[in-house]
Fold this sequence. Notes:
By secondary structure, the chain is of the alpha/beta class. It is built from 13 helices and 11 strands. The strands form 4 sheets. The protein has a 5-stranded parallel sheet. A two-stranded antiparallel ribbon has the order 3-4.
Amino acid sequence: MSQSxxxxxxxxxxxxxxxxxxxxxxxxVGKKDVLRYVIIALYAGGHVLLEGVPGVAKTLIAKTIAxxxxxxxxxxxxxxxxxxxDIVGTFIYDxxxxxFKPRKGPIFANIVLFDEINRASPRTQSALLEAMQxxxxxxxxxxxxxxxxxxxxxxxxxxxMEGTFPLPEAQLDRFLLKIIVEHPDHNESKxxxxxxxxxxEFRVEPVAEATDILTIRSMLPAVKVSExxxxxxxxxxxxTHRHPMVRLGGSPRATIALYLCSKANALISGRDFVIPxxxxxxxxxxxxxxxxxxxxxxLEGITTDKVIDEILNKVPVPTPGxxx
Length: 324
């Protein structure tokens, strides 16, 4: 679909997203930016890594997004003995027909929550990441397409590292966004207690459809990005390679992710063009898992988020008002 022939309806997209966030807020207290980031990843066609300690609603976020978009949902608990066939499925013998029939695994859903991904073995992690990249799985030599839209929301606990298999950098790069889920603040904790019974009942209604996501994705190519904003995106990623505390900067996939997610955020904001604030909003979850710091950075207490802050402060922001 060409950019010129695609009709964009930013107000329609902003309204759908507003309805999703409003419905989700009945169950999810706070976490508005987290929810927005997950929706951005959905619109951009990517996958999400949620990082946070147990009990901060990572599972609930995935389940709620699936429900509000009226999509199928499945949950996989990662363990060291989890096999690839436990995810993608296998063939089983049917005595009635004397033939083998496919039994599809939990990967066949619109939203798949892969809980504690770093507890799965590297072999199982690779099988999941292959499905994420190819949007298909192969069972006994037969290829099966995964449903569309398809999104993996993987979670990991940053504290417990014993008995885990951390994802290599090349595999982390497969996730469009890495979102940090923080502890609720004082007022949010009080609100959770007031709503605890309704949260447990999980009364969330669908306010959009999976087809809406596919429609919005088809509009992304037509969102305008000026030459100045393109330059801004490239400069940010290039600066990750120049920072004195960075051992490995963002890959070309980081540049593409900034481009696509900035477009998705613009649509959510009711615009058909990208502004620098769109780029800034998505920069941290896009870059934080794609930057490797030098050993001395940890000794000095420097984090990837702090490095990203320094980069965003250093790279000149384009002049406002340029809309491509």
